[in-house]
Amino acid sequence: MESSSFISALWAIGSLCLVFMVHESGHLLAARLFNIRALRVVFGSGRPLWTRTDRHGTCWSLHVFPFGGHVQLSGQGGRHGYDSASPERKALIVAAGPLANFGFAVAVMTLFFYLLPPASVPGAMRGTDGRVPFSQAVLLGAQDLKQVTAAYVKGPSEHKRDKVQNAAAPRQGKTPKTLQWRIERIGLLSVFIGLFNLLPFPGMDGYFLLSYALEKIVGPQRARILQPYAWRISLVCLGIVMTFFKFGIWTMT
Fold first, then answer.
1. Which residues pair with 63 in a beta bridge?
2. How far apart are the C-alpha atoms of 181 and 166, rounded to whole Å?
3. Helix (H, G, I), strand (E, B) or coil at 44
4. What residue segments make up the domains of the chain, in order of their start?
5. Rounded CA gap, 105 and 94, in Å?
6. 132-165 per-position pLDDT tens digit
7. Helical residues (DSSP H) of the chain, grouped into ranges
8. Burial of 40 (0-12, 13-18, 19+ CB in 10 A)
9. Which helix (H) or strand (E) holds 48?
10. Catalytic amino acids?
């Protein structure tokens, strides 16, 4: 029991580190696509454990706690680089983090069904050699991720019950149920990190996306005036939508 708990804890910490790295790497790759140099890439928080400067002059650092991270771009707070880019480019750089999380979640589930297909995959979806074609693996991965996310949204009790059932299920075929459950949780964590960063709180990706949308629509000066009200209104609207979704009001007839 203690060994299993220790492995689960290591898996959770490793998954969290990986998901945050994917998120920050999305920002970094989008910035480099627009020739905006990254000065610093930080993974985690707290005291730094490891630092390195690459050939692009970007300082990479890994910190002790696997929570959060950020990418510091050239021109943030100045007239050159990121701040001089158009609202559309800045929005793409910001949105690249959550998009990387969503794409990573689908990719993880796709590779799982392609390389280690569970016995539950019907024969009609397998090739003549018994393996799952890549196109089918993409479909199965997306469907499984959707089902897991929906089950989690039902509430903690439903999520806990699904976890117990999966852990207790017999091992069939080449893929143990516990391994499938762990892989699914990596995808689920990546989706939730992406969604969490899209919330319009100050400092979050959603807040900056809202700022750039206002800047594009009404101009920079008016955007600065409207921003404090816009993110509060959008947060209220988000709460209403989540309430409707949570209690299934959209499906009522």
1. 48
2. 7
3. strand
4. 2-198, 199-253
5. 18
6. 888 888 888 888 888 877 777 665 444 444 544 4
7. 2-33, 87-115, 134-153, 156-168, 177-197, 205-218, 220-246
8. middle
9. strand 38-53
10. 24
